Amino acid sequence: MKKILMVLALAASLTACANINEKENVEKPKLEAVNEDSSKEDVDASSSDEEKVQSDSEENTQLEKHTENVYEYFDTVTTFLAYTKDQEEFDKYVKVLRDELKTYHELYNSYDAFEGVNNFRTINENAGKEPVKVDPKIIELVEYSKKMYDLTDGKINIAMGSLLGLWHDYREMSLDNLEKAAIPEESMLVKASAHKDIDSIVVDEKAGTVFIKDPEVRIDIGAIGKGYATKIIANKLQEEGLKHGILSVGGDDVLIGDNPASENSYYKIAIQNPDLEDKENPYSSVVSLKNTSVVTSGDYQRFFMVDGKRYHHIIDPETMYPSTRWRSVSVILDDIAEADTISTYLFIIDLEEGREFAKKVGAEVLWIDEDYNSYSTEGWPEVE
């Protein structure tokens, strides 16, 4: 059978753009094997199903398909699919994956404390007090985040934690008690938004410290951290020998190599339809790709309702409120870290500006607006 792997890119925004330690309401993921006439055969991603395929690139050796789900880290579901020569090789990669996920889950955490670990929560707790000695991985992320700040004209700003944290707290409160659901008062938003100067985050590489000068500034890496960690983990897996697979951390999908189970070597990735009521059309798009990454930002899972209005997690720094331009934005780009950040940025800006930016960075993009109309870059239809 000529089968092509399909991984459901369900609301990649839920981790791509939200706080990476904020829990998602996600179902157990499914991997779908799709044959050439597009009929679907559901395969439980946690099953022990193995599919042997012939790989020309592996000197005609047979490769087995293996899948693993990890639920413990980043408060999301990580789905790992790989084609390997046997179970032992796959188990080696799973161990690498779990070890790396644990490391970055603890370091890139703004809400939880871990014994012996100085993370972003530690840095925030010491804002205005003293520098915090941190792992070099944190310094690398802070420096990278400042580059993303420049790339996105300041709209993706890790120093916006006070404003984003305020919306986070109200979202959690509203979801816990629907009868008392509310949004922050305007005065609270203005006060929180006044403290977002990224230059107040000072890195001393020689000393290995991070210090927030403004005691009211808080770091939030929700639009950057998970994608950056996913890139590093995917690179680590390839260094260990992985040649064919998909790593999906909460929907941030890295396609490693090509698909040995497909005649044309491409993986098929389904983009979730943000209209969750449209049961007949669950996907907005299905794209054929290999050796690249796909990220989607959307408003349809991390949200709460107040007086019939939806308030989601992607905040426009200019308005201080959730952006209302789009329902979802999907980005195809080889660099998963950049794709993660860019999907959030494009969610905030308008279509014309977004098209220009996508061309500048070489990304293919699919936008879906409030009325579920679709717009795309010129190259998107070519991969559908």
What descriptors fit this protein?
nine-stranded antiparallel β-sheet, alpha+beta, disordered N terminus, 384 residues
**In terms of structural class, how would the helical and strand content be classed?**
alpha+beta
Distance between the termini: 22 Å
Taken in chain order, the helices and strands follow as EHEEEEEHHEHHHEEHEEEEEEEEHHEEH
Q: Compute the gyration radius: what is it?
A: 21 Å
Low-pLDDT segments, ≥5 res = 1-50
Strand content: 25-35%
Average pLDDT, rounded to a whole number, is 87
Strand arrangement, major sheet: 4-5-6-10-11-14-17-18-19
- The counted number of beta strands is 19
Major pleated sheet: 9 strands, antiparallel
Structure description:
Keywords: Cell inner membrane, Cell membrane, FAD, Flavoprotein, Lipoprotein, Magnesium, Membrane, Metal-binding, Signal, Transferase. Its cofactor is Mg(2+). It catalyses: L-threonyl-[protein] + FAD = FMN-L-threonyl-[protein] + AMP + H(+). Flavin transferase that catalyzes the transfer of the FMN moiety of FAD and its covalent binding to the hydroxyl group of a threonine residue in a target flavoprotein. Belongs to the ApbE family. With 384 residues, this protein is α+β, with helices and mostly antiparallel strands. The chain contains 10 helices and 19 strands. The protein has helices at residues 13-16, 87-107, 120-125, 136-151, 161-176, 186-193, 225-239, 336-348, 351-361, 380-383; strands spanning 4-9, 30-34, 40-44, 52-55, 61-70, 78-84, 132-133, 201-204, 209-212, 245-249, 252-256, 267-272, 283-289, 293-298, 303-306, 309-312, 326-333, 364-369, 374-376. It has a 9-stranded antiparallel sheet with strand order 4-5-6-10-11-14-17-18-19. It has a 5-stranded mixed sheet with strand order 3-2-1-12-13, with no helix packed on it. Strand 15 and strand 16 (309-312) form a beta hairpin. Helix 2 runs antiparallel to helix 7 and helix 7 packs antiparallel against helix 8. The longest helix is centred in the N-terminal third of the chain and has 21 residues, at 87-107. The radius of gyration is 21 Å and the shape is globular.
